[in-house]
């Protein structure tokens, strides 16, 4: 059997019905939830260290050095939410593996061998994005908000608001950093090409700055540029990914 025949057999894309896809999606979501629950147990063992790690930048910028708790369930949520966030980060390789298993039936046999590189690269990009959000984007954004507080205002943010912003930035950056992986999948299915990405780069830049303006809590240009800069770099990287992994045209014999 030739290499071309090996790519087409025995599992050529398009064999699954719509109901099969729904059943497969349900199964992958269930496995992803199981992995998060298992990681949640591990996260709760180190919950005090996690709380100190998460709230360090928040407390450093607040005048009182504390965050308000106004809800009756805040003492529980202040433990549960950071633990859940860390559990998602710990389980991210298994979650991304379920994503691969879901899209794998639409790939050829040869392409399915990319499972390990896909999971490793997607996990690395997600962790890099989460680190960028925690170590740079959130401290800069939170610090700018604290710096512009007028003298007549007694700024006392609640823990729920502070962590909501932190969660939005950290997970948002983790998802944004998946752009090259998304382009890889679209390129393998023939939905995008490097020529298409280059041709529409001016529209991409416009969309990136619009997304940065919406995602960034601050209205200043520096805060928005902090969100837009990594997306611009990732878009350029995605062009290279599309060029390397674009769907090859069939060779006529």
Report what the structure shows.
The structure is a single chain. This protein has 253 residues and is mostly helical. The protein has two domains: 3-177, no CATH class; 179-253, no CATH class. The chain has helices at 3-8, 18-45, 47-61, 74-90, 92-103, 115-147, 159-176, 179-188, 194-199, 201-215, 221-245. The relative contact order is 0.11. Residues 1-13 have low confidence and may be disordered.
Task: Considering the chains and any ligands shown, give keywords for the structure.
253 residues; mainly alpha; 11 helices; 0% strand; flat; disordered N terminus
Topology diagram in text:
Elements lengths: L2 H6 L9 H28 L1 H15 L12 H17 L1 H12 L11 H33 L11 H18 L2 H10 L5 H6 L1 H15 L5 H25 L8
Helix pairs in contact: 2-4, 2-5, 3-4, 3-6, 4-7, 5-6, 6-7, 8-11, 10-11
């Amino acid at each position: 059997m030739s290499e071309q025949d090996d790519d087409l057999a025995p599992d050529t894309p398009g064999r699954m019905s719509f109901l099969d896809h729904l059943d497969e999606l349900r199964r992958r979501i269930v496995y992803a939830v199981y992995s998060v629950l298992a990681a949640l147990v591990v996260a709760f063992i180190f919950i005090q260290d996690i709380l100190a790690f998460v709230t360090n930048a928040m407390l450093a910028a607040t005048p009182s050095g504390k965050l308000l708790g106004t809800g009756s369930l805040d003492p529980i949520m202040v433990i549960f939410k950071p633990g859940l966030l860390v559990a998602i980060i710990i389980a991210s390789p298994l979650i991304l593996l379920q994503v691969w298993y879901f899209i794998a039936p639409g790939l050829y046999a040869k392409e399915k061998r990319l499972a390990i590189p896909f999971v490793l690269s997607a996990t690395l990009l997600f962790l890099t994005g989460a680190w960028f959000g925690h170590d740079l984007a959130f401290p800069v954004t939170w610090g700018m908000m604290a710096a512009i507080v007028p003298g007549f205002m007694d700024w006392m943010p609640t823990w729920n608001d502070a962590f909501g912003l932190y969660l939005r930035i950290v997970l948002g950056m983790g998802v944004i950093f998946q752009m090259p992986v998304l382009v890889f999948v679209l390129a393998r299915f023939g939905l995008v090409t490097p020529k298409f990405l280059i041709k529409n780069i001016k529209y991409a830049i416009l969309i990136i700055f619009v997304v940065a303006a919406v995602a960034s809590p601050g209205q200043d240009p520096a805060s928005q540029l902090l969100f837009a800069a990594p997306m611009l770099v990732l878009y350029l990287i995605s062009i290279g990914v599309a060029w390397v992994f674009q769907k090859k045209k069939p060779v006529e014999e």
